[in-house]
Design goal:
- The complex is a heterodimer of chains A (282) and B (562).
- Chain A is of the alpha/beta class and 282 residues long.
- Chain A has a single domain, classed as Thiamin diphosphate (ThDP)-binding fold, Pyr/PP domains (Rossmann fold, 3-Layer(aba) Sandwich), CATH 3.40.50.
- In chain A, 34% of the residues lie in helices and 16% in strands.
- An 8-stranded mixed sheet of chain A has the order 2-1-3-4-6-5-8-7, with helices on both faces.
- In chain A, helix 7 links the parallel strand 5 and strand 6.
- The longest helix of chain A has 18 residues.
- In chain B, strands 6-5-4-1-3-2-14-7 form an 8-stranded mixed sheet, sandwiched between helices. In chain B, strands 9-8-10-11-13-12-19 form a 7-stranded mixed sheet, with helices on both faces. In chain B, strands 16-18-17-20-21 form a 5-stranded mixed sheet, with helices on both faces.
- The two termini of chain B are 29 Å apart.
- Chain B folds into 4 domains: 170 residues, Pyruvate-ferredoxin Oxidoreductase, domain 3 (3-Layer(aba) Sandwich), CATH 3.40.920.10; 181 residues, Rossmann fold (3-Layer(aba) Sandwich), CATH 3.40.50.970; 74 residues, no CATH class; 107 residues, Rossmann fold (3-Layer(aba) Sandwich).
- In chain B, helix 19 links the parallel strand 20 and strand 21.
- Helix content of chain B is 39%, strand content 20%.
- The longest helix of chain B has 23 residues.
- Chain B is an alpha/beta fold.
- Classes of the chains: A alpha/beta (282), B alpha/beta (562).
- The interface between A and B is large, with 54 and 66 residues.
- Strand 2 of chain A pairs parallel with strand 15 of chain B, so a sheet runs across the interface.
Chain lengths: 282, 562
């Protein structure tokens, strides 16, 4: 029997929000991994930043750390390093991940902390009622840019490929089963994984139809996920067709594996070699 | 003449001045003398002017001391800056290959050519000088050799040879300063910095992780813990910035690791947002704030006690926290351990204030290393599905569970929340959770009261009262030795919660109360005014960012108590 991951908390996302699909996919992924004995539910820890995406913390009945704007990669890195047996999944928004916390994101990717980041990329600040974010297109008319945004948008896939993320994917809540599969693969991946999710915001920037018409599964078209150059090129397709799926993945040593060197950071004893150190100070 | 040595070695950055200070300090310490070494260095890697002040005595020493009986000058500037420290019969050793000097104190030594002759490198002039000093004070060359071998490893051999040459040269050309008497059977005590003591004390209290971004003067905690990570049982991480540091540490603490971060004022400023999250999420954290001279970048390698109010009022919103400030390396050891325990017992952030003077000066001091041990936090007994991370309790402390250890769902959060950790905006729920956190205050105050939150030194009956905190302790204790009348010195170690009752008693029983602080406004004096509604009679302040020096402070105290 699947464990019940629902919580008593009232869901306050707007009807039709892309976040519902992400929530659904996450719960399905967690359940399936649990049922297949791949991940024990009590070892799952989620974390979120601040924004509409972050409410997911209240909607999934697993361990969690509701962090602050942009800091999720640092929060989950700390959790993972302290206890590598935990499976950490961070949620973030586009403003959260690519503005406020971009330094934490790129360094977590580069270090290859075994963790999963799911970015709800709706290309707008929604909880603050509609301003441009780093992924809003140039010309985006928001409350702080009535004349249209003058900034060139950031390409999250490029950002993550350039910073050595070892699993880089894009999902779409309109393709629920596909998204669930990505989440499972990202959690299984022994390293830093990021899924940038094209999440339509029905209230401030509704791209449901736009995405539905354009997304295709690049892995079905024989994309080689070990080819970095090809992944880079694929992520430049943003007009008539928008690829979703795994752009790139590689396996390499994890940060927590290297830094803990097989030892458990949480020790019951204290300073086993204190006397030796004191001897050096005499 | 007192049985003590006061030495200054000066030169450019890159001349091995710090190494010389450290090695000389260890040499004196191993001779059984109480030793204090202060490093004065600038924010640069080459050039400029650095110097080490070394003080050693058979009596206890707490501070550097401005007069010197020997100055070693590697360059001209060191002569200009330090010759006025010397009195009659004192000696100024200078590198006669580089500098001309015809003052009476001058003792020329061809340091450069002596190094060249033995095919050494220029930085080894410091070892020739150490050899000369060994002769001037009658030190044991065997001990010099032992310390150099320990500190220099493979490079020791040449340095030892040069020290011997320096010793011989001095023996042939200079008369001794003093034949120091070395205590015969005195046990050698640790010789360490405040930062080393903090690292050891926290480790002994069960520290699992140290996370920090380099920033003077906290950086040596990072170096020390990284170097001894295996012996101390630590995982040491250097993240991308101080915001990453504190958020990572809150993550690791949530997972169950006793975690500590270290920084200075600017880095602590960056941590404020997450410090507030530590407060509302009740995630235990020990923060070491090693103050340096601000504001902003200020005078980054010099000392100051100007962050007291910042620490007391840090972060947005209201939540319980503790601020404490040890005054010497032994206190730093015990109190860092205590601070880590308090963070976990009360599930709060604890801020331990140090400063450059305490963090980086080295001194001989007895420490009972068994005086610190991990004190257990309140853990949930077999937490199950009904586990509530923020369970309402009488004392406000909810039993802790780690994620991953049972069926319990452990949710912590930066949002206001209900007992399970779910977000709430319900007015009654908000008040209830605020009240729960507020209830912890009572337990914190009671706990701290029983941990000697303030120390009384000197003459308990004296009507002349000095109040000082942190590293200023050392200079005050030494100034009291110089003064020819008895005074009482009260040193609050806890600033939050503040030992108000005790402080008030002391102020009320005094005729004159004087605060001594290394800042420009008198932040302890302001705190006393706020906490006990009494003004001290005078504030002795120093804000040239150099620590108080005992003779000068004694003079100011004499004036103030007139």
């Amino acid at each position: 029997m699947s464990p019940d991951l629902d919580t008593p908390v009232e869901n306050t996302w707007c009807p039709g929000c892309g976040d519902f699909g992400i929530l659904q996919a996450v719960k399905m992924a967690f359940n399936e991994l649990h049922e297949a004995d791949e991940v024990r539910l009590e070892n799952l820890v989620i974390s979120s930043g601040i924004g509409c995406h972050a409410k997911i913390f209240d909607y999934v009945k697993v361990n969690g750390f509701y962090s602050i704007h942009g800091r999720v990669p640092a929060t989950i890195s700390g959790i993972k390093i302290a206890n590598p047996e935990l499976e950490v999944v961070g949620f973030s928004g586009d403003g959260d991940a690519y503005n406020e916390g971009v330094s934490h994101l790129i360094h977590a990717a580069r270090r290859n902390v075994d963790s999963t980041m799911i970015v709800h990329d709706n290309r707008v600040f929604a909880l603050t009622t509609g301003q441009f974010t780093p992924t809003s297109p140039k010309g985006f008319k928001g409350k702080s840019t009535p004349g249209g945004s003058i900034e060139r948008p950031l390409n999250p896939i490029h950002l993550m490929l350039a910073n050595d993320a070892s699993f880089v994917a894009r999902g779409f809540p309109g393709k629920l089963v596909h998204l669930k599969g990505l989440i499972k693969d990202a959690i299984r991946h022994p390293g830093f994984s990021i899924i940038n999710v094209l999440q339509p915001c029905v209230t401030f920037y509704n791209l449901w139809e736009y995405y539905k018409e354009r997304v295709y599964d690049l892995n079905e078209r024989g994309h080689d996920t070990s080819d970095l150059q090809e992944a880079w090129k694929k992520s430049e397709e943003n007009d008539d067709e928008i690829p979703i799926g795994v752009f790139y993945k590689e396996e390499r040593e994890t940060f927590e594996g290297l830094i803990t060197d097989g030892k458990r950071p949480i020790q019951s004893g204290t300073a086993p070699g204190l006397d030796e150190v004191v001897e050096r100070l005499l | 003449m007192k049985n003590e040595a006061n030495i200054v070695i000066g030169g450019k950055a890159g001349d091995g001045i710090r190494a010389a200070g450290e090695v000389l300090g260890e040499i004196f310490n191993r001779h059984g003398l109480f030793t204090f070494v202060r490093e004065d260095y600038q924010s640069l890697i080459r050039g400029g002017h650095n110097y080490s002040q070394i003080r050693a005595s058979s009596d206890r020493v707490w501070s550097q001391y401005s007069p010197a009986d020997v100055v070693v000058a590697m360059d001209e500037r060191s002569i200009d800056n330090h010759e006025d420290r010397l009195g009659e019969d004192d000696k100024l050793i200078f590198d006669s290959d580089k500098v001309d000097y015809d003052g009476e104190a001058g003792r020329p030594m061809p340091l450069s050519s002596m190094v060249e002759k033995e095919e050494g490198i220029e930085v080894m002039r410091n070892s020739v000088a150490i050899g000369a000093i060994a002769h001037l004070y009658g030190l044991d060359l065997g001990i010099v050799e032992g310390v150099m071998e320990k500190n220099y490893g493979k490079k020791a051999e040449k340095n030892v040879l040069l020290a011997e040459k320096g010793y011989e040269y001095s023996e042939e050309n200079f008369e001794k300063v003093i034949e120091i008497e070395f205590p015969e059977d005195k046990e050698i005590v640790p010789f360490l910095t405040g930062n080393q003591a903090i690292s050891l004390g926290a480790s002994k209290a069960g520290l699992d992780m140290y996370i920090a971004y380099p920033m003077t003067p906290s950086t040596s905690i990072l170096h020390f813990t990284a170097n001894y990570r295996d012996e101390l049982g630590l995982t040491v991480v250097q993240p991308e910035n101080e915001i990453g540091v504190i958020n990572m540490a809150l993550g690791s603490a949530y997972a169950g690791a006793r975690s500590m971060v270290g920084t200075s004022g600017g880095g602590f400023a960056l941590m404020q947002e997450a410090l507030s999250m530590s407060g509302i999420s009740e995630t235990p954290l020990l923060i070491i704030e090693c103050q340096r001279a601000g504001p902003s970048t200020g005078v980054p390698t010099y000392t100051s006690q100007a962050d007291l109010k910042f620490a007391l009022n840090s972060a947005h919103g209201e939540f319980p926290s503790i601020v404490l400030a040890p005054g010497d390396p032994a206190e730093a050891y015990y109190r860092a351990g205590e601070a880590l325990n308090l963070a976990w017992i009360h599930q709060i952030p604890v801020i331990l204030l140090s400063d450059k003077h305490l963090s980086e000066s080295r001194m001989s001091i007895e420490i009972d290393f068994d005086g610190v041990s991990p004190e257990a936090e309140k853990r949930a007994e077999s937490p199950g599905e009904d586990y509530k991370r923020y369970r309402f309790t009488e004392d406000g402390i909810s039993p802790l569970a780690r994620p991953g250890t049972s069926d319990a769902m452990v949710k912590v959060t930066s949002y206001e929340h209900d007992e399970y950790g779910y977000t709430t905006e319900d007015p009654e729920g908000i008040v209830a959770m605020q009240d729960k956190r507020k209830r912890k205050w009572e337990g914190i105050e009671e706990d701290v009261k029983n941990r000697n939150p303030l120390k009384v030194h000197g003459e308990d009956d004296s009507k002349d009262l000095i109040l000082a905190w942190g590293s200023t302790k050392g200079a005050v204790l030494e100034a009291m030795e110089i003064l020819d009348f008895p005074v009482k010195f009260v040193q609050p170690i806890y600033l939050k919660p503040f030992p108000s009752e005790k402080v008030l008693e002391h102020i009320e029983s005094a005729e004159r109360a004087i605060c001594v602080e290394a800042n420009s406004t008198g932040q302890l004096a302001d705190l006393i005014r706020k906490e006990v509604l009494e003004d001290v009679d005078e504030r002795i302040l120093k804000y040239d960012m150099r620590p108080f020096d005992p003779p000068e402070l004694a003079e100011r105290l004499r004036e103030a108590f007139k």
